[in-house]
Amino acid sequence: MNIKDINVEQLSPMMKEYIKTKTEVGSDCLLLYRLGDFYEIFFEDAILCSKELEITLTGKQCGLEERAPMCGVPFHAVDGYVNKLIKKGYKVAICDQVEDPKLAKGLVKREITQIITPGTNTSTALLDDNQNNYIVCLCSVGEKIGISIADVTTGDFYLSEVEGQRALMDELYKFNPSEIICNEAFLVSGANLDEIRNRIGCVLSSLEPHYFDDDRCVNTLTKHFKVKSISSLGINDFPCGVTAAGALLTYLLELQKSDLTHFTHIYPYVSSKYMLIDSSTRRNLELTETMRDKQKRGSLMWILDKTKTAMGARMLNSFVKQPLLEKQEIEKRLDAVEALCKAPMERDEIREYLNAVYDLERLIGKVSYKSIKPTDMVALKNSLAVLPYIKMLAASIDSELMKEQSAFIDELGDICKLIDDAILEEPSLNLKDGGIIKDGYSEDIDKLKAAKRDGKQWLADLEANEKERTGITNLRIKYNHVFGYFFEVTNSYIDMVPDDFIRKQTLTNAERFSTAKLKELEDVILNSEDRLVNLEYDLFCSIRDHIACQIDRIQETAKAIAYIDALCSLSVVAERNDYVRPKLNEKGVIKIENGRHPVVEKMIDHDMFIPNDTLLDNSKNLISIITGPNMAGKSTYMRQTALIVLMAQIGSFVPASSANIGIVDRIFTRVGASDDLASGQSTFMVEMNEVSNILRNASSNSLLILDEIGRGTSTFDGLSIAWAVVEHIANTKILGAKTLFATHYHELTELEGRMNNVKNFSIAVKEQGDDIIFLRKIVKGGADKSYGIQVAKLAGVPDMVIDRAKEIVVQLVDNDIIEKIQSIEVKSNASKAKTKIEHLDEVDLSQMSLFDTVKDEDVVEELKSLDISSMTPLDALNVLYKLQNKLNNRFSFD
Questions:
Q1: CA 151/CA 266 separation, integer angstroms
Q2: Long-range CB contacts (within 8 A, 24+) of 726-730
Q3: 484 in helix, strand or coil?
Q4: What confidence tens digit (pLDDT) does each residue in 598-618 have?
Q5: How far from chain centre, in Å, is Cα 112?
Q6: Contact by Cβ (8 Å): 689, 722
Q7: HSE of 66, CA atoms in CB hemisphere, 13 A
Q8: Closest CA to 418 of 453, 451, 393, 385
Q9: How confident is the model at residue 672 (pLDDT cuts 50, 70, 90)?
Q10: Cβ(116)–Cβ(131) under 8 Å?
């Protein structure tokens, strides 16, 4: 049943209201409509939700001939169901009853209280405490893209501008948003929308043009932050970013149905202040999660994150995702980490106090949304109670940065005292159940509590007093639902009833009376429970609103606590793992002695990790060509170098005996191989796309990690590409980036003698008969073998396959490419062109013609005509490749 086809006039009054509300929220939003103790869902929404939530689909009479499809969830369990829908990418509107049904005349008044999307969800049950839940707004204007980022749970709010799709994707991968909204121009800007939706894994939708009206966006921002112009916010240099931020703020205000008072600042940022790390590098270096399992265990964050608070973990996460470029800023962090290492007792005491600190940023978000619970308020108080101690200890650390953060901490004693005076240590979980306010805080509440607790005793005392005053010995106080409390006097004592008794009812053998005092007690006792709950609720709300006025103070303190927590974590990790403080230079020298992979060394038992040295600079050691067998440790070695550089630039100590790190502007990695089936790209195409990105965007200050370039195609093509890539990088007039280049093309070792800035290295291997032992040590010089067959044997490949491979490799060695280059001047006779039937070259069979026939004389004549002296090695390889193809096409293979 489609809502658009319904005759609204035939609907019941309640269903008319539902249709009106559904029209307001739009067809793209699922509506949960509060009816009594359930949130009901109707029509198309009900059909969809019954499938997604696996709940029963029923029907409801709605005034039409056909029953309206309906399903529902209990109000007390709605959060769990909403979270399921949000996790699946749906947008959900909550329509609540906003008046007491007992007081309603006609239909109970209902309003949309919240619209929840993946980027605006505030449920702690769904969100990761250690990760921000970002929503991003993009505004495409010409070549520029305005970008604004917000976390509605913490109040973080940023804006910037980028140019080009690659720069945009780098920012999106960095913030990893759960939702993106954009203007319509962005949808037609050429952006890869599928990559955004599938790779980043977020919801992408466009907003109507009026959201991006420049004047409206400026007005929204200035009104919210209570300033006269955007120049007061320091964002007037980002016109596209301002539009994106204004549109995002408008969107959030509409959805959250809140003033967003915890959005107290907007921070402009320039991406060039931080090391740029693209999506491939984040994935290959496994900074925050592993490639295979998408788990934190096994990632760099798993090693570095020893924080005590959720906000500290988020701060450290931002360190890792945004390494610094300014030497002075990095040194300040390193100074702080070193100072904390030198004061372990004070550091550990700080961490002990941090154990008691809850997530202040998200608690204050709940205050802003008016969703904070009494138990959250106690958690806030307990967190604030330890601030003076953390502030004092941080100030005692001999570090400029630690003293700065200490100064930012407001002890917030007034707020702590307010909560401590007012809220019970173990309050009720439900705000509407009472049991929140301490005795002695409010005289009115104390009276109501006493009435609830002592009401029966009060009545007994009044009864005894009236018996004594009147002399009526059988005077009784009784109760019924019609008359409430009353004195009952039998007819035998009716003459003794005093004048202040007010007759309420006459019975056959008795009379019932009331007095002013009894009426007062009746009001207090009968209404005490409801009045107590309402008064406690009102008082709690006034405390909450008072705290909301102090959000600025709490947020600044929370950021300082998070920063201190992150620095303490880096210090603890450095101490436990035997890390050293890196030296920094701006001369482009990367010199690491006994470097270790921070993650792999923790995965290996008994400290068996083999450390290695690294030397890269801008002159003679620009490129290191690394050869050696698979599984020997080439990729681990290259990754560890990149991680050590990155760790140094976030201000962390590094796993080495010494390290002198030249600051790099970007780290690029081309590691591993995988098809991108979703976009129809082969392994080789994915590889070439990444190589293209690196060569076009790297600078002379970048660090490149390239692993087996060209392996996804035929030998000659692959070798040619790898050779050309090294030449391109080595040319300091074109690129000149420091590079670690691992390859199985041993022919590339020839480059060391041809280029003065290329050096050969290999992984040491010890042979024992047909077996090998990986020594994991980097040594100078190229490897003379690939040891592929031995590695295959280690992997458990059947012996018959191994034996056959040994036979074939002997035949292939006789036709080694280097030997061909060296023998190209040998006599050109017909016997030289013959090829053994058993010979299996690595040439891609799909590149051969099945129909061409070639005579030996043709090959000989072509060889004779070659001018060897004018040929480069690559020219010689290409000619040999062509001639070999011609000869091989004549034969069939067994």
A1: 12
A2: 726/623, 726/625, 726/751, 726/755, 726/758, 727/751, 727/755, 728/695, 729/622, 729/623, 729/695, 729/704, 730/622, 730/623, 730/755, 730/757, 730/758
A3: strand
A4: 999 999 877 789 999 999 999
A5: 29
A6: no
A7: 11
A8: 385
A9: low
A10: no
Distances (CA, A) of 204 to 134, 200, 247, 518: 13, 10, 15, 66
* 418 or 804, higher pLDDT: 418
Q: Which two tokens stand for residue 119?
A: 């980027």
Alpha-helical (H) ranges within 511-598 are 516-548, 551-576
The structure tokens 């007062």 sit at 520
pLDDT for residue 456:
81
Is 448 within 8 Å of 535 (Cβ atoms)?
yes
Alpha-helix residue ranges (DSSP H) falling in 96-238: 165-175, 184-187, 193-194, 214-224
Residue 658: pLDDT above 80?
yes
654 DSSP 8-state letter: B
* Strands, E assignment, 61-200: 68-74, 91-97, 110-116, 134-141, 144-151, 156-163, 179-182
Q: Compare 167 and 301 and report the one with higher pLDDT.
A: 301
What are the φ and ψ backbone dihedral angles of 198, each rounded to 5 degrees? -90, -45
| The dihedral formed by the CA atoms of 385, 386, 392 and 398, expressed in degrees to the nearest 10 | -150
Radius of gyration of the chain, Cα coordinates, nearest whole angstrom: 38
Phi, psi (deg, nearest 5) at residue 482: -85, -50
pLDDT (0 to 100) of residue 2: 65
From residue 55, give the alpha-carbon distance in Å to each of 50, 58, 92: 5, 10, 17
Taking residue 411's Cβ as centre, other Cβ atoms within 10 Å add up to 18
Single-letter amino acid code for the residue at 196: I
Banded pLDDT at 826 (limits 50, 70, 90): very low
Tokens describing residue 615: 């030397």
User: What tokens appear for 2 in the block?
Assistant: 């489609």
Quote the pTM value. 0.82
Instruction: Write out pLDDT tens, residues 101-147.
Output: 777 777 888 999 989 999 999 888 778 889 999 999 999 998 899 99
Mean pLDDT of the chain: 87
Structure confidence at residue 849 as a pLDDT band (50, 70, 90): very low
